[in-house]
Design a protein that fits this description.
Length: 192
């Protein structure tokens, strides 16, 4: 039984023809994966099915009764002036927080008020030890390399790491957002 049917769909966005005379149907029980290059029109197809875009005259979209659809939009809430790599590095802000706190504690160890007071020194050293352990569990100094590997694993080309998010396609931004969301030690990654 057909759940969704696209008939004779032509989609034009601005001056770009995304689809022409597309015919496609989704049968009950099918599981479909859309695969294509970034910028190929996968999100546009979903927006068309969702009703955010309208096909040119002559095309139609038919849904079986009680069929609902939804998709996760590709609108990252990131500063578009950030590079993809910087956005992904910021994905786990705790790494930067722990690093900054470690620097602060290390700086305080030279303060006579700290090293001259046994209890304060002991607390500072204990806190430093806790932070070092947390920093290492978050990836420590290898964190940038892990983020790099994660972005590569998600399909972002290394040549795109230093490009501002504003020039990347929706799919590439999504990759950056996914990278930012899971940019943590590999044992925390659930799926690629």
């Amino acid at each position: 039984m057909i759940q969704i049917q696209l008939s004779n769909i032509t989609l034009v966005l601005g001056a770009k023809r995304i689809f022409e005379n597309l015919n496609w149907e989704i049968q009950r029980g099918q599981r479909i994966g859309l695969v294509g290059a970034n910028g190929a029109g996968k999100s546009s197809l979903f927006k068309l099915i969702e009703g955010e875009h309208s096909p040119e005259l002559g095309g139609s979209i038919t849904r079986a009764r009680l069929v609902t659809t939804g998709y996760l939009p590709q609108q990252p809430e990131l500063d578009s002036s950030l590079t993809a790599f910087a956005a992904a590095l910021a994905g786990n802000p705790r790494v930067a927080e722990v690093h900054a706190e470690l620097e602060q504690i290390e700086s305080s160890l030279s303060d006579p008020k700290i090293y001259g007071d046994g209890r304060k020194l002991q607390r500072a050293l204990e806190r430093q030890h806790q932070l070092i352990e947390e920093y290492h569990s978050l990836g420590g100094d290898s964190y940038p390399a892990r983020v790099r590997d994660l972005l590569l694993g998600l399909g972002l080309a290394e040549s795109e790491f230093d490009k501002p998010l504003s020039v990347l396609s929706g799919g590439q931004k999504k990759t950056g957002r996914v990278g930012a969301a899971v940019a943590c030690p590999p044992r925390h990654i659930v799926a690629r």
